[in-house]
Design brief:
The radius of gyration is 21 Å and the shape is globular. Helix content is 37%, strand content 14%. 47% of the residues are buried. The N terminus is likely disordered. By secondary structure, it is α+β, with helices and mostly antiparallel strands.
Length: 366
């Protein structure tokens, strides 16, 4: 989940900065530490280090909790891989204390994002993705896509909404769509690529600096196909507190900037299907809730009975947007033609049942 930018500062209020002897010996002694806002899964401070000139750093500690050691290991590995990219796309990792799950990072500073921020964001995302090669496979977990349980949940929602098959289907209810979705899940599971995926490339996890966009918070980093994260722009930032839908001209420019930056960094065109990537996010009910609630229940089955707000949008707003995008991207003759027709019908049913649903905001929160 991305935190609402910008980060606020607050006094330590009696907390001890986790900066042990190992880090002091390597980097110097910290002073004037100020706590920053962060997710519940970490504690973050800005501090000065002794020396001439005085250096300002960010100290991050992964808190106790589920998969804390794995999240720490992912972040350290991802930052080291990202450090290959020049100009940088992430802060420099200055020091670590594995016993305390502490990272010390350069303080980048930041400035408000421009109105066309998605273009620079997409360019930096492509260069981040291009940091890795086949030789890096195994240094991070492989990206995991939707499952057949997600297919069942999605088709269950369609049935609840009264849409059991796309118009024109000549098969039993849902059979045509299920065949397409089974093939989709299989394609996504075998999508080519070893890109360095951020895991949560959300507004708030991108810092806009004088030297370009840099990404922070790599706790969910993985290796996979970069289109899975390029899809964030079009499908509405599915893992993010701040879901937005950029205007079409900006979206087109951002996607073009991504492909150009990838080609310049790798000498190749990116492999895979953006339509598949967007459809994959549509299936995932866990992409309607913040991380703490993922993997706990079938969120799609709850949506007809209640709506809930997460950040800039409600669950129904998010789903209606995704349905519309997938309907637009799937045309006659495509591999997901029946899904596209069903998605359009489901969106129409939602707008009829809940006529006050609003589009996703076009701009990120200030």
């Amino acid at each position: 989940m991305c935190a609402p930018p910008p980060f606020g500062e607050k006094p330590l209020a009696g907390e001890k900065l986790p900066f042990g002897e190992k880090l002091r010996a390597e980097l110097g002694s910290p002073r004037r530490a100020r706590r920053l806002d962060s997710s519940p899964r970490s504690r973050v401070w800005r501090a000065e280090l002794s020396g001439t000139p005085v250096a300002v750093v960010v100290v991050k500690q992964l808190t106790e909790g589920p998969e804390a050691a794995e999240r720490y290991a992912r972040e350290v590995a991802a930052l080291r891989l990202a450090s290959r990219v020049d100009p940088p796309v992430a802060p420099r990792l200055l020091g670590t204390d594995p016993a305390e799950r502490v990272l010390v990072l350069e303080d980048l500073g930041e400035q408000p994002p421009a109105d066309d921020w998605v273009i620079g964001y997409a360019e930096s995302l492509a260069r981040l993705h291009a940091a890795t090669s086949p030789a890096d496979i195994g240094l991070l977990p492989a990206w995991s896509g939707p499952t057949r349980e997600d297919i069942d949940a999605f088709l269950g929602l369609a049935q609840t909404l009264g849409r059991t098959a796309p118009d024109g289907a000549r098969t039993k209810p849902h059979e045509a769509v299920r065949t397409e979705l089974d093939a989709l899940v299989n394609r996504l599971a075998h999508a080519p690529g070893h890109a360095l995926l951020h895991g949560d490339p959300c507004p708030g996890n991108d810092l806009h600096t004088a030297s370009g966009v840099r990404f922070i918070d790599f706790e969910q980093a993985a290796l996979g196909n970069g289109l899975m994260e390029l899809a964030y722009l079009r499908i509405g930032f599915p893992t993010c507190w701040c879901a937005t839908a950029p205007a079409q001209p900006l979206l087109n420019a951002a996607e073009a900037a991504y492909r150009t930056a990838w080609r310049q960094a790798t000498g190749t065109d990116i492999q895979g299907d953006l339509t598949d990537a967007c459809a994959g996010w549509l299936l995932r009910g866990d992409a309607l809730v913040e991380r703490a609630h993922r993997g706990t229940t079938d969120h799609l089955s709850e949506l007809p009975h209640r709506d809930w707000r997460w950040g800039t949008a409600t669950a129904r707003q998010r789903l209606a947007h995704r349905l519309g995008i997938v309907a637009q991207m799937t045309t006659n003759g495509s591999e997901l033609e029946h899904l596209g027709r069903l998605a359009s019908a489901m969106r129409d049913a939602m707008l009829t049942r809940w006529p006050t649903l609003r589009p996703l905001p076009a701009q990120r929160p200030e």
